[in-house]
Amino acid sequence: MNNLPKVAVVILNWNGKQLLEQFLPSVLSSDYENLEIYVADNASTDDSVKMLEENFKMVKILQLQQNFGFAEGYNQALQQISAPYSVLLNSDVEVSPGWLTPIIRLMEKDPSVAACQPKILAYHQKTHFEYAGASGGWLDMLGYAFCRGRFFDQCEEDSGQYNSTEEIFWASGCALFIRTPLFYKIGGFDRHFFAHMEEIDLCWRLKRSGYRIMVCPDSVVYHVGGGSLPKSNPRKTFLNYHNNLVMLFKNLPVLTLLWLLPFRMLLDWISCFKLIAERKFRDARAILKAQFYFLKGIRIWYRNRKQTGKTVSNNLQPQVKNFKNLTGLYRGSIIVRHFLLGVNKFSALKKG
Fold first, then answer.
1. Which site from 34, 121, 241, 306 is most exposed, i.e. has the minimal number of CB atoms within 10 Å?
2. DSSP code for 325
3. What is the layout of strands, in order, in the sheet containing 154-155?
4. Partners of 137 in the beta sheet?
5. Contact call for residues 131 and 236 (beta carbons, < 8 A)
6. pLDDT tens, 27-61?
7. pTM, full prediction
């Protein structure tokens, strides 16, 4: 194991003292020898840093000056990391001792793999996949994210049905393995996202540059989920709807964007009316707010789109200049398949 490269596990923390106390010991028990463990603290107001200094002296602390959120917090933290591989790990994740080696070996063997995720199971129901990533992320033709093992809010029981190592569209941000230099080169996370969808945007840019995103189920972790924002939180609703529109605006070809963006905004209105009918008024208002701020910031997103195009072009791999990597993109609509045809499992989709 000594011949494997250095890996930096970076845990972003904001007022997560109890989570660190609970889950850091499993990370410290990793059987990967060439390992550095960092906690990047987003200006916590609890005793997180003091607790780390007293009880986890082997952990390196990166103290950030303010709460930058998930996206910019990791941007700030990874500027201080020199290891060839970084693992962006949520503070509410329990890892198994051998979780690092299979993925690092995979990435060492194939230089085209820019990022990878483990199989993610639910900490409180370890027989089932967890919402945030399951066994690899996909995207449908309308920009809706889903996973091998998670379809909308339904998480499947893990019976080994998604144990194959495969190329996917996006890797989960709760346990994201990435080549550190590529994180810099591709522009890191988009700071405007704050949290939610930033990892899909990052993976999309990497794929546009010709790299591959993988899932390696030989590595297994257990995620609590909802550690920073509860599932039904209107702030999370706002971020998901707003960031999804920004991501599509940044990454889609112009001709596709012209029809898809208005259609997506219409579908978001339908979601809004559905929430009103369910008397979930705060979440409905969050969708309207997401559309308002997306339209209000359109000049920012236009500049962002141009810069993204330049970054992708500058990092385009020579051997794939005429190749569009669409692996992990479902050419249909999961809304149609789910709500009209009753499909509720990834395995029931007809890929192609």
1. 306
2. -
3. 154-155, 150-151, 145-147, 137-140, 329-330
4. 147, 170
5. no
6. 999 999 999 999 999 999 999 999 999 999 999 99
7. 0.94
